[in-house]
């Protein structure tokens, strides 16, 4: 009989921040229908960064504790669900995911750039062509985005690293990341992402590993900034 006791999983930062906000609701400092303070003010009040606050607010929106009205503010729902006063995990922090991807994919592309082949470049070029079509027709080419990054990872020759790249990318389907995509991805942001992919491709085509790594880091940093600093504030 296995009596091993598993350690409790540490609560992610956005869960802790969501708990703080829920505590304000529970204590009556924020009543149903009340508008929460502005994002900058609330972040200062709670002593957290605005990206962590934004993740917490999205999590609270998913569970139904708050309603986000773009251009108006965040409001406590009229009938918040008090049966559960702790936010469960809705996936990894998108901010931490982008940091992890930058670390892993920055290393992976160095290896891939040293093994560039004509077939690899052809495959990447076809992905970019399909992405242009999808974006032009108003669709979000998430699967093609994944294929672009995995094609590079597979070229590294390290199947473990390629698997990690795939797993990190697939976290974008978690409830938290998916809701952030719904709120902050637009044809314009996808056009920007496409241009960044094209810069990565150009560096690989030039057989320049350091430039390819720099372009990958720039792409993932810009991806992070697009939702963190979107002009339409919560």
Strand-helix topology:
Elements: H1 13-26, H2 39-46, H3 50-63, E1 66-69, E2 73-76, H4 94-113, H5 118-136, H6 142-155, H7 159-170, H8 175-184, H9 187-205, H10 209-228
Antiparallel strand pairs: 1-2
Helix pairs in contact: 1-3, 3-8, 4-6, 4-7, 4-10, 5-6, 5-9, 6-7, 9-10
Structure description:
The structure is a single chain. This protein has two domains: 64 residues, Arc Repressor Mutant, subunit A, CATH 1.10.10.10; 135 residues, GntR ligand-binding domain-like (Four Helix Bundle (Hemerythrin (Met), subunit A)), CATH 1.20.120. Helix content is 64%, strand content 3%. A two-stranded antiparallel sheet has the order 1-2. Strand 1 and strand 2 form a beta hairpin. The protein starts with 12 loop residues before the first helix and ends in a 6-residue tail after the last helix. The relative contact order is 0.13. The mean pLDDT is 89.
Keywords:
234 residues; mainly alpha; Arc Repressor Mutant, subunit A; Four Helix Bundle (Hemerythrin (Met), subunit A); two-stranded antiparallel sheet; elongated
**How far apart, in Å, are the first and last alpha carbons?**
51 Å
* Helical residues, percent: 55-70%
| CATH level-two architecture of the largest domain | Up-down Bundle
CATH class of the largest domain: Mainly Alpha
What is the number of beta strands? 2
Q: Could you name the CATH topology of the largest domain? A: Four Helix Bundle (Hemerythrin (Met), subunit A)
Mean pLDDT: 89
Number of helices: 10
Poorly predicted runs: none
Largest sheet: 2 strands, antiparallel
Roughly how many Å is the radius of gyration?
A: 20 Å
Strand content: under 5%
Order of helices and strands: HHHEEHHHHHHH
Q: Strand order, main sheet: write it out.
A: 1-2
Shape: elongated
């Amino acid at each position: 009989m296995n009596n091993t006791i598993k350690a409790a999983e540490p609560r992610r930062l956005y869960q802790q921040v969501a708990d703080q906000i829920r505590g304000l609701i529970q204590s009556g400092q924020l009543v149903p229908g009340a508008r929460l303070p502005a994002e900058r003010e609330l972040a200062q009040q709670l002593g957290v960064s605005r990206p962590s606050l934004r993740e917490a607010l999205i999590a609270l929106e998913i569970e139904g504790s708050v309603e986000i009205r773009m251009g108006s503010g965040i409001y406590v729902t009229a009938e918040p669900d008090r049966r559960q006063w702790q936010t469960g995990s809705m996936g990894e922090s998108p901010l931490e995911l982008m940091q992890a991807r930058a670390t892993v994919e920055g290393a992976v592309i160095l290896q891939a750039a040293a093994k560039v082949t004509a077939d690899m470049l052809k495959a990447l070029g076809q992905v970019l062509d399909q992405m242009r079509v999808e974006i032009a027709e108003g669709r979000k080419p998430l699967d093609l985005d994944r294929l672009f990054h995995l094609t590079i990872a597979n070229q590294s020759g390290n199947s473990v690293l390629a698997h990690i790249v795939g797993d990190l990318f697939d976290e974008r389907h978690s409830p938290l990341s998916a809701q952030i995509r719904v709120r902050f991805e637009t044809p314009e942001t996808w056009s920007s992402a496409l241009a960044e992919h094209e810069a990565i491709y150009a560096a690989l085509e030039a057989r320049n590993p350091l430039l390819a790594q720099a372009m990958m880091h720039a792409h993932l940093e810009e991806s992070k900034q697009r939702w963190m600093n979107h002009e339409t504030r919560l």
